[in-house]
Design a protein that fits this description.
Radius of gyration: 13 Å
Number of helices: 4
Oligomer: single chain
Order of helices and strands: EHEEEEHEHEH
Distance between the termini: 9 Å
Mean pLDDT: 98
Helix content: 25-40%
CATH superfamily: NAD(P)-binding Rossmann-like Domain
Number of domains: 1
Shape: globular
CATH architecture: 3-Layer(aba) Sandwich
Length: 120
């Protein structure tokens, strides 16, 4: 199972980040939702202020490219994941390049689709 930091978490059940948090947990992955505002996604507390979390396998992005630069240092130098998944609307060639230079795998894909296909 892959310990996953979900960046861009929302307590709105209509948002894909909300659905992905539940689906990741359902599939047995430990999920840490991080967002701008505190809240809950069922039993999962949304963390704020870029918390340092150890041993993250995957960061799954639900933040648009124009809002990502503030997270570059956080992701690349503090979280240091093995992989970043750029969900639709979060694609970012600049962050892909920076991540690849640090040996971090990147993937443009939908977390929900990857989970449903068993290829997360």
């Amino acid at each position: 199972m892959k310990k996953t930091l979900l960046l861009g978490a929302s307590s709105n059940p209509e948002r894909y980040s909300y659905k992905a948090t539940l689906k990741l947990a359902y599939h047995g992955h430990e999920v840490i939702p991080v967002g701008l505002r505190e809240g809950k996604i069922e039993s999962h507390q949304i963390l704020t202020n870029m918390p340092i979390v150890e041993d993250i396998d995957t960061v799954t992005m639900y933040v648009g490219a124009k809002n990502q630069p503030v997270y570059y240092d956080y992701i690349l130098n503090k979280i240091k994941p093995k992989r970043i998944v750029f969900n639709p609307g979060a694609e970012n060639t600049e962050l892909v390049k920076l991540a690849n230079e640090k040996g971090i795998e990147t993937e443009e894909a939908c977390t929900l689709v990857l989970l449903s296909l068993g290829s997360y």
